[in-house]
Design brief:
With about 290 residues, this protein is of the alpha/beta class. It is about 40% helix and about 20% strand. The chain has two domains: about 190 residues, Rossmann fold (3-Layer(aba) Sandwich); about 80 residues, Alpha-Beta Complex (UDP-galactose 4-epimerase, domain 1), CATH 3.90.25. The relative contact order is 0.14.
């Protein structure tokens, strides 16, 4: 299959490109720079120069592909306004990709976060919340899945807030960066809130399975660890960085503070049963032991 990938040099995307190439798919991936293009070429993909705001490049990539995996999202998380800009950019990009695939029955695999449900573990059957700081992403994903009624085999892979590899990535990486800046390995609230996680290589295998055969309009959970307490995560970060560990006010964590403070365990039981997905890589606490001081 000829696959067009956006976000192919990120933590998830680089693993997805590697997974697709290893399973004999031909990959074209969006490249924002010469360095990105070189990294993609080294991984066995054909670079297509452009960025997520370049809707013409997105259409060209989708037009020439048998399927699309869209992973790109702005990396500017510095403020609520920058996150909002990133969501608007993603909305336009998925709109362009989807329109290029209408009537073709080709797959469009999009990404979102796992939902959180008060008092219990979230499952694939739970809807994404449309409120909160990233609620707009849920609406964008819903619009993409609705293309199933217009001849697009659209499906969503819901990712936990931490996608990790070699001690880096996701919420854990943001906590580690904050710890380095502040001198404290902090966590919001009492630290009992649970965060699910997945290794990037395990997530990549699920993206491939969904691309190859998931039904239109479906949603799947790339969750390997159902939920580890944030205090346990901070304890590993503190030990690896040689810093004290303690609770900090939610405001210290920027625009994602309210999400950081939320208990959000998630299950992937249905995903494993239906698609045969089996995570095999280290869990988030084990992998976090690789965090570099």
């Amino acid at each position: 299959m000829q696959v067009f990938v956006t976000g192919g040099t990120g933590t998830i995307g680089s693993a997805v490109v590697t997974e697709l190439v290893a399973h004999d798919h031909a990959v074209t991936a969006l490249a924002r720079s010469d360095a990105s293009g070189a990294a993609l070429a080294a991984a066995g993909a054909r670079p297509l120069r452009g960025d997520l705001a370049d809707l013409d490049a997105l259409r060209r990539g989708a037009d020439a592909a048998d399927g699309v995996i869209s992973l790109a999202f702005s990396r500017d998380y510095g403020s609520a306004a920058s996150v909002e800009r990133g969501m608007l950019e993603e909305e336009a990009a998925l709109g362009a990709l989807g329109q290029a695939l209408v009537g073709s029955d080709r797959p469009l695999v999009v990404v979102s976060g796992t939902p959180w449900v008060a008092g219990r573990v979230a499952t694939e059957a739970d809807p994404l919340p449309t409120d909160g700081p990233v609620g707009r992403r849920a609406l964008t994903v819903a619009a993409a899945l609705a293309l199933s009624d217009r001849g697009v085999r659209a499906a969503a892979v819901r990712m936990p807030r931490t996608v990790h590899a070699d001690g880096q990535g996701g919420f854990n990486g943001l906590l580690a960066d904050l710890a380095r800046r502040s001198g404290v390995a902090g966590y919001p609230g009492d630290g009992t809130q649970r965060w699910p996680a997945v290794h990037a290589a395990d997530a990549a295998s699920l993206f491939r399975l969904v691309l190859e055969g998931a039904p239109a309009g479906s949603a799947w959970h790339a969750v390997a660890d159902e939920g580890d307490p944030v205090a346990d995560i901070a304890a590993v970060i503190g030990r690896r960085l040689g810093l004290p560990v303690r609770s900090l006010p939610v405001e210290e964590f920027g625009p994602f503070g309210p999400i950081f403070a939320t208990d959000q365990p998630a299950s992937s039981a249905r995903t494993r049963e239906v698609l045969g997905w089996t995570p095999t890589h280290p869990g988030q606490l084990e992998d976090l032991e690789l965090l570099r001081p």
